[in-house]
Structures are given as C-alpha cells and as structure tokens.
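Chapter review: from sequence to fold.
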Amino acid sequence: MKKYYYFSLFFCFSFNLTWAQQIAVDKDSLKIFGRGDTLYVYNIDDSTLTINSLYSVNPIYGYWLTISTKDSSFPYYFAHNYKRPLELKLRNNEAIKFIFERVDLCTACKRSSTNEYFRDTVKLISNSKQNDTLLLFVEGDGILSSINNENNLSFEYILYQNYPNPFNPSTTIKYIISKYSHVSLKVYDLLGREVQTLVSEEKPAGKYQTIFNATNLSSGVYIYVLRTEGYSASRKLILLK
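The token string follows.
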C-alpha cells in the first residue's frame, strides 16, 4: 500500500473548515542515485489544481526530468534561477508523474566531472490554498556540467507532415506545443471551408498525435491548420480513393 503525505490542514475545527484546492504527493523526499526517482502529485479536491513551477533552493543546482500527464509526456528542466512555467492542471483525483533523471551540481561549470553526493530542497509551487509551496528533500549523486544551449531544454512549436500522405481513408497528424494553451487543429478544403475539427481544447506542453478519418470526404487536396497561443501553421494532405 502506498504511503501518502497530505500537505493540507485536515485536522481543524468543523466550523472553520473550507473546501479548497488540496495537493498530495506519494513521498516527501527523493533519492536520485543512478536511475533517478519518481514523484507522483495528486489533486485530492473537487477544484482544479494548477502546478505552476519547480525550483531548487540551492543556487547552482539544476534538474533534468520527464513529466507525464494523462495526455502527454515531455522533458523538463529547472534550477534555482530558471523557473520555467508549468501550468499543469489537474482535476479531481488526477495525478501527474515527475521522473527525476539526473542532477547538474554546477550549471556554470565548463566540463563534466565524476559524480558527487549532494543534498538539496526542491520547491513545488501550486495554487493549493492549503499548501501552495511543497518542500521536497532531495539527495543522491549528480554531475558537474553546464547548460550550453537553453533551447535544448524546451520544446518548439512544430506541426509535422501527416503520414501516410497520400492516404485513404485515415492518416496521422503529429504536433508539438511548447506551453499550456488552447489548441485548435482543423481541416479545410481548398476553398477555405472547414470540413472537420480534430482538436479544440486546452492542452499542456508536450507531443501529440491525432487521427484524421476522411471516410465521408471526396478525393482531393485538403489543408490542416494548427493554431495555439502565438503560433499558427498549416500543411497540405492528399486524399486518394
């Protein structure tokens, strides 16, 4: 049975109890030795919980990890002075998986070195009204390295060419978004008329794919368009029946 640490004021007087965003994790410490460690974060409330950012208390430590939600999985990096926004939203009883893979013990160093033992505290910031800052004790072994290209740590917006193309009757469209935003993916004919909406919803940063089924459409050339905050792209697809 998993042990849960609930960072909220469950023990309080009944007349003072208010129902607000509440956050829980499966452990309050991480051990990153060799293969790393995994942290599960849960929303145990009816309200939507938003995880805003992670950062290290130590001013020179940085962390590489993979974040997995129910919709996507994507790489992430954070450090003391590099608090990239997350905007991960969890509904009631949803969970997010944080896979801590390795630790950079000196983000300003020029060369790599042998592993060294470290201890640190990581802060997880959310909109929880019970505990908006979770403190996680971290220990393990890390490397001395440097971050030479910040672009390698984050996604770009990318709309891929569908595959297969030409197709009949269905094809796969893949895309990447760099931050949480509303995503629209629609298919149009050459006259600009919308023929199908494939995606229209809020999504966190990540890699996605969707299937376009054109069973009810005639052969021809169509355009699919991806729109999200600050980005728009289109590509042609060919339906041959």
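Two observations follow directly from the output. The radius of gyration is 22 Å. The chain has two domains: 5-153, 158-239.
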